[in-house]
Every structure is written in structure tokens, then in C-alpha cells.
Amino acid sequence: QARFVESGGGVVQPGGSLRLSCDVSGIIFSVAVMAWYRQAPGKERELVASISPGGRTNYLEPVKERFSISRDDAKNMASLQMNMLKPEDTGVYFCNIQGGLGPMGPWGQGTQVTVSV
To answer: Is the pLDDT of residue 101 over 90?
Structure first.
């Protein structure tokens, strides 16, 4: 069974940076489209970024030019580099497998990102 363990969150000031990591097990990682999602307080979970096995990336419009998703197939790990963070980036960040109809695996515990002065 797929398992996702997210880490790297924290509290930062606006303009700061964080790097999130996701350790993945239970799947053939190299053929999976990996994605990062976030859920802000009181809001629906949303897709932030995805990366295909070939390295093609897609981003939510508000995070383009600020966030960068990557993958390490040798380590079964997905990462999200977040720069120029804004208060509206605050939320719990999760990773998952991205299917044609949305996330496909069980949710992990996520990692909290708080952007505040």
C-alpha cells in the first residue's frame, strides 16, 4: 500500500523559503506522477504542483515562478522548493500520486507551513 511521509514545514516570514520533502513507499515510484497539495484553514485541498516520470511539471498559477517541484527516483522522494513565500501559502502540505481524476493514494499526515510576520 502506498505511504507518504511529508516533512520540512515550519514557520517563516513573508519572503522566506522552505523545502518540503516526501518519502514514498509501497508504489513503483519511477512511473508515478507525483504531486503536492495544500489545504488552507477552512478551504478545500488544492493541487499545487505535479511532476511526471519524465520530469514535466505543472503549477497552480499563484505559485508559478516561486515554487519548484522535483523528484529523486533513486530515493523514492518528491520535493517542493518554496521561495518568496506569502501569507496565503499557509496551510498543510501533502504529497500524493496524481491520477487522471485526482489524488490516488491515502493521505499522509502532511506538514504544516505557516507564513506570518
So the answer is: no
Which candidate, 58, 56, 62, 67, places its Cα nearest to that of 8? 67
Provide the pLDDT for residue 68: 98
Cβ distance 43 to 54 under 8 Å? no
Per-residue HEC secondary structure of 23-41 comes to EEECCCHHHCCEEEEEECC
Residues with Cβ within 8 Å of 63's Cβ and at least 6 positions away in sequence, in order, are: 48, 49, 82, 89
Instruction: Measure Cα distances from 76 to 11, 46, 85, 103 in Å.
Output: 26, 23, 26, 18
C-alpha cell at 106: 491515502
Does residue 93 contact residue 8 with C-beta atoms inside 8 Å? no
pLDDT exceeds 90 at position 100: no
Distances in whole angstroms, Cα of residue 98 to Cα of each of 8, 10, 22, 61, 107? 21, 25, 14, 18, 12
Which residues partner with 77 through β-bridges?
Answer: 23, 72
